[in-house]
Amino acid sequence: MKLKVIASLALLLAVVAAAAQTKPGIVTLRDSGFEALKGKRIGLITNPTGVDPQLRATPDILAGADGVELVAMFAPEHGIRGDVAAGDKVATSTDPATGVKVYSIYGATKKPTQQMLEGIDALVYDIQDNGCRSYTFISTMGKAMEAAAQAGIEFVVLDRPNPLGGNRVEGLITEPDCISFVSQYPIPYLYGLTPGELALYLKEEGLIKGADKLKLTVVPMEGWTRDMTYDRTGLPWVLPSPHIPSAETCLYYPATGIAGELSWLSIGVGYTMPFRTFAAPWIDAAKLSTRLNNLQLPGVAFRPVHYTPYYGQFKGQAVNGVEVFITDESVAQLTPIQFFVMQEIHKMYPKQSPLTATEANKNRIKMFDNVVGSKSIRETLTKNHYNAESILTIWNKDTERFNYKKQNYHLYE
User: What phi and psi, each to the nearest 5 degrees, are found at residue 163?
Assistant: First the structure.
């Protein structure tokens, strides 16, 4: 029976691989005979998403590649093999599968130190992102690029799809006083670039230290076009963090995550619907659902929902609210959804003012501002009684300019 199960799994993986339209950078690198890394001692930044279509891990592929010497790995948030909880510091260790030393770059340091990079010729990056500025992996990439520039070594990106496609741009460019690890660079909240394209943008726009000294190589994908969301790539989805269990979740993360930073609502994290709900014990679910559906937001619908979170916000308490449905992603604006939800909740419950700074919530307010990338969104919403329309001009003020500029770095049509 066990052999039959193994054979069936192997057949399934073969079918998935055969159906894949898109070849990620690790596959095009392998198809080239590892040309970009031949004769080099490499360090690898990756996590469980670094896999080929047959789910073979990038560390294992590179450790067995002829002419390539994998001498170190660097663990971002959640660790190389995904065995560290969100927000927990990653420890330096040895990877049992390859025997290679793994340095933490999510703990005492957020980027490789010069001592860690001694004896390395090229630093390789292979992580599947979710297309959103506040997701920390692109911050890790940029910081590692700076470290490579300082060490005088090459930085190589094995490219992967932006799961939201290559055309969706939403949100303002991060302002200087809101730069942080959740908004490390002046780019929109949704930036419509692949990791490789973003690396080119950061280097050529001079947005990282030592940009002019950095040798950057992008190993491109094959078979990916800008209109392709992840479900059209044919690639298997490996969750990049515990609360992004499917590629579809990437649509909902930017629709709910900003509001979730305020810790006044459950957004489904801690239940079975991460980033898909807005709920609290005091909300009238049916009334909120009706109000939101009456707004007729393009490509979006809501239904009443009731559940009890297993952990996190409102753990063990019954909550009521709405589940969000993206019914047509081609017309839906994702990030404004949460601002309209905040608007309607404030109309229903005027005393619920999570954006009013107090001693108790000052850290959450700061995080909200940093994730948004500007204090002006919070200030304008507060001034205008949470009216979502009042902030849309500010929220969208940079998108046209960024869309024009980012075309210079497109690797795919």
Answer: -65, -15
Q: With helix as H, strand as E and coil as C, how does 329-387 read?
A: CCCCCCCHHHHHHHHHHHHHCCCCCCCCCCCCCHHHHHHHHHHHCCCHHHHHHHHCCCC
Q: Hey, which residues does 325 pair with through a beta bridge?
A: 301
**Residues 173-208: b if buried by 16+ CB within 10 A, e if exposed:** bbeeebebebbbbbbbbbbbbbbbbbbbbbbebebb
Element containing residue 401 per DSSP (H, E): helix 399-406
Question: Tokens in use for 163?
Answer: 């799961």
CB of 294 closer than 8 Å to CB of 272 = no
CA pair distance 11, 17, nearest whole angstrom: 10
3-state DSSP call for residue 133? coil
Report the alpha-carbon distance of residue 178 to residue 195 in Å, rounded: 22
- Take residue 408 and report the two structure tokens written for it: 């210079």
Residues of the chain with pLDDT under 70: 1-20
Bridge partners, residue 70, by sequence? 42
Tokens read off for 43? 């360090």
Looking at every residue in the chain, the average pLDDT score rounds to: 94
Q: State which amino acid sits at residue 190.
A: L
> 259 phi and psi, to 5 degrees?
-60, -35
Identify the pLDDT of residue 7: 52
The CB density around residue 396, as the number of other CB atoms within 10 Å, is 17
Closest listed residue to residue 135, CA positions, set 244, 22, 267, 18: 244
Question: What is the DSSP code (8-state) at residue 409?
Answer: G
How far is residue 338's CA from residue 259's CA, in Å, rounded to a whole number? Answer: 6
Query: pTM of the prediction?
Result: 0.93
Identify any residues that bridge with 271 across adjacent strands, giving them in sequence order. 269
23-38 pLDDT per residue, tens: 999 999 999 999 999 9
- Whether residue 161 contacts residue 228, with contact meaning beta carbons closer than 8 Å, is answered with yes
Q: Which two tokens stand for residue 377?
A: 């969104």
Rounded alpha-carbon distances, angstroms, from residue 144 to 46, 56, 409 = 12, 24, 20
Question: 12 burial class (0-12, 13-18, 19+ CB within 10 angstroms)?
Answer: exposed
CA angle 172, 176, 179 (to 5 degrees): 85
Supply the pLDDT for residue 18: 46
**Are the C-beta atoms of residues 161 and 197 closer than 8 Å to each other?**
no
Tokens 């700074």: give the residue: 357
